[in-house]
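Re: your question from the hallway

Yes, I did run it. Sequences:
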Amino acid sequence: MSLLEVEGLSAGYGDLQVLTDVDMHVEAGEYVTIVGPNGAGKSTVMKSVFGLTDRMGGTVTFDTTDITAMDPEEIIHEGVGYVPQTDNVFPPLSVRENLEMGAYILDTVPEDTLQDVYDRFPVLRERASQKAGTLSGGQRQMLAMGRALMLDPALLLLDEPSAGLAPDLVDEMFERVDRIVESGTAVLMVEQNAKAALRHCDRGYVLVNGENRYVDTGEALLADEQVRQDFLGG
Amino acid sequence: MALLRDKAPDWAPDRTRVRTALFVAVLALLLFDVLRRLLGESLAPSLLTGYLWDGLVFGLVIGLAGVGLSLTYDLLGFANFAHGDYISVSAFVGWGSTYLIAGLGSFDPLNLFFLGVGDTVFPRDVGVSVTNTPGAILVGLVVAAVGGAAVALLFDRFVYRSMRKSGAIALLIASVGVAFTLRFMLVFLFTQDSFGLTVGAWAYELPFPGGTVNISAPELLLVTVAGVSMVCVHLLLTRTKLGKAMRAMSANRDLARVTGIPSERVVTATWLVGGALAGLAGFMIALFQGTVNYQLGWTLLLLVFAGVIMGGIGSVYGAIAGGVLIGLVTRVSQVWIPASFAEAVGFAVMIAVLLTRPSGIFGGDSL
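Structure:
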C-alpha cells in the first residue's frame, strides 16, 4: 500500500471539470513530480488531494485512510502539508509567527521542529522577528516550506516552488527540496521547470488535458523521444 | 473595500504633495491663531486645556468603538453598520444592571432594569454615580461588555453566518437590517425618550491659568477602561495564538485555511471581542454624556466610521489614533465655531486627511 493512492480521480471547480480519471501514487519517502503543459490540471491534482476542489469521482487514500471527502483542516491532521504557489506567507506577521501558525493545530509550538526548520533555512532564524512581507521571493518560498514542515508531515505537496524565482535561485530551491526528501518526507511537486524537476525526482507523471499520459522514472521520461518532443521542448 | 484600499494612481504624488502643503499651512495658521488668542487673553488656557481633555476622553470612546468595528471589518471583509446599535443595546443592558444593583430593595426590580421607563423611577432617587455607587457601575460595565459580545454572537449565528460566502455589499445591507431591528426593538422597550442616568459625581478642579479644568471621576474611569482595553487588544493580537491567527486570517484567508487555522472559531472569537468592546464603549459613552436613548450608538457610529476611515480602515491602531483625533478635533474646533458644528468639523478633517493620505494615517498596515 502506497503512502498516497489516487484512484480514478475526477475533480474540478463548480460545473467545470478539470481532471478525468487520474491515477497516481506516492510511496513513503518518494519524490514525485507532475509536469505537463499549461492548463493540464497539474495544480488541480494537488489541490484535490488537499481537499480544495470539488471532487466528482474516484478516491484519495492517504496512509490507509480515505481522505476523499475530508476538508483541508482534517487532511492536515493526517500528516499532509501543502505549500500554495503564490500568496503562501502571511505578510504582516513576523517570520517566527508565520512558522508558529504552521503548528497551529498543536497545543504548543514544537521547539525542536522549529529549530530544525531554522537549521534547514538559516536565513529564517536571522530574520525571525522581521515581517514576512519584507522578505525576498526566495526567502518567502523558504518560509512557506518551513511553515508546512512545522508539523513534520509524511507528505509535502509543493505547487510550483520555482515560480517567480530568479534563475540562479531555482537550482538552490531544487537542492532544498532534495534535502527535504533526504530527511524522509515524501514530496509531490508540480513544476513548470519540467526538465530540472525530472532530473531531481524519483518518478514523474506527465499530465495532459486533465489525464495522465505518461508515468515513469524521471530519467526515463527525460530520455523518451515522444515526451521530449511534446512536452519538454525537444 | 477595494476602493478604500487602492493605491493612489500615478498622478497622485504631486497633487498629494500640494494638498499636504496646504493642509500643513492651514494647521500652522490655526496653531498661530490659538497662540495669538492665548497671548491676547481672548482664550483662557484653562478653556483650551478643558477642550483638549474633553476631546481626549470623547476620542478614546470613539477609538474603543472603532477597534471593535475595525477587527470585524478586517476578518469578515464588510463594514458592520449594526455596530452602533450593538453599542446602544449594551448601553441599555449595562445601565439597566447598574440601576438594578444600585436601587435593589428600594424600588421594583423590573422598573429599575428598564431605567424607569414610564416615569416609574427617577435618576435622582436612585442616585447612581461613579463615586456614590462604584460597585453598581462596575457590574454595569461588565454586563455591557458581556451583552455586547452576546448580541454580536447572536446576530452572527442567525444572520451573517449563513451569508459567509456572500459579497461585502450583501453583508453590509444585511447589517443595516440588523441595525434597524435592534434600534426599533429598543424603541419598543424603552420608547424614544432620553433617560438621565447619573447624579453629579466627584470632580477635581485642576487650577489652571484663567480658571479651572474639571477632571471628573467618570472621565478618569473612562480613560482607564479605554486604556486598559486597548492594551489588552494589543496583547491579544501580538502575544496570543488566537490573536496571531486573527491577524493571519485577515492577511490571507485561503492560506489560513490550508494552514489548519479553524476559521469559524476565529471568526466567533473576533465577534466576541468586537462586541465586548462595543459594549464597553456603549456603557462609557452613556456615562460620559449622562443620558442614554435609542439613537446613542447610531449617532456615535458616524464619528466612529470617520475615525476608523481616517486611521486607515482595517488597522486597529489606526482606529485608536483616528478616534482620538476625531475627539480632539470636535472639541478644539470650539475655539472658532459653535459646538453644534462639532461633527461637521470632524468629517471635514477626515476628508482633509484622506486627501493628503488616501489610505489613512496607518493605511496599508493590516491589524
